[in-house]
Amino acid sequence: MTTTHPLAELWDSDPDSLYLNHGSFGPSPRPVREAREYWSRRLEQQPMRFFCREMEVELEKSTAVVAAFLKTQPDRLVLIDNATVAMNIVASSLPLSEGDEILLTDHEYGAVKNIWQASCRAAGARTTVAVLPFPPNTTDTVKAIEAAITSRTRLIVVSHVTSATACILPVAEICQMARRHRIPVCVDGPHALAMLDISMNELGCDFYCASGHKWLCGPFGSGFLWVHPRHISTLKTPVVSWGGSIAGRPPSWKDSFQWLGTRDPAPLLALADAIKFFNPERLVEYRRYSHELMTIARRQLLDIPGVGPFCTPDESDFVSMVAVELPQTAGWKPGYHGHPDALQTKLRERIGAEVLTGSWNGHRFLRLSAHLYTSQQQLDTCIHAVREILTEEAEGVCQSPKDS
Ligand SMILES: Cc1ncc(COP(=O)(O)O)c(C=O)c1O
After folding, report:
1. How far apart are CA 9 and CA 72, in angstroms?
2. Domain of 314?
3. How far is ligand 1, taken at its centre, from the CA of residue 249, in Å?
């Protein structure tokens, strides 16, 4: 395989950094950055024209492109800054009573758990957790979630592709099962955009929250909330503003979510350009190229003593992001948000590599990402350093003051 993809030059990557954490924050290629800059410039040139006459029309155009990409209707979709804001809208909208339950899985993202815990606390409700099989295969995953449903379950919240464990969950099957119990499902989907084909109407969920900045390489600050028509009239915004069209067009359910006070909507408008950039051939190419890189990287990692396959035992279980389990050598302490595992810090300090490490359910993991700008050499360099650091850990040498 080629060691650098010809499209890599479209990303403005820092040459001093080995950026292998697209899964957390994914940078955009040049055409997408240029589109975002175009819209910001247009706003600055004549703010009255832009906000009062152009913005709503342009948002609808961008929404139509996103909707076509997701094989759904534009009137089920509102462009939102990111998955976190979208999930907060769902949480603000769901009526909860004392004793009600929101069912999550043990793979859910920390901020998503916080959102639902806060909303449950305010209502005297509680979150419950379905512990998925390890690794989470389709049949047993659906069964584990079904077994955790009670008469008080009001919503199931599930990732399409999980964050720490980087596994693809069977959301269509989960939605099918939930429908039998008449329980709505909210899918947390930022990693699934571009990584997987999504036919939103066929997925069977009630809400879908996503960010454009991950595998789709949309601008930071772009995302959407997809809502099944049966829930649209119940949606409430956590940010109260004018609630009507600024251009004076007929009212729409999206009005409360589009004008959240004065802000630059350029990322939302340029989200359409990320979809145009990933014309079908490029989408296939991103998946092929990144999967090949991740497959080689995973084989190399699994060759290091003590490293295991974690939640994705098969090479068909992942696309462009893979997590492996690391040995818990003496002195290892679980990292947490903002306090990375010592391996993550050492990789950055020694070779300028940005990766994700951490602990999940008592397991220590390393997660790597690849996109069209990632090269084989970058991954080789990183994995060589991982092997070196884990060997030092095992031998109890090279304890930097930061480890203590
Ligand atoms: C599974 C999952 N859900 C939600 C989020 C939140 O995304 P954002 O910060 O773009 O809102 C992330 C971010 O990494 C994630 O991995």
Report:
1. 33
2. 6-28+280-403
3. 33
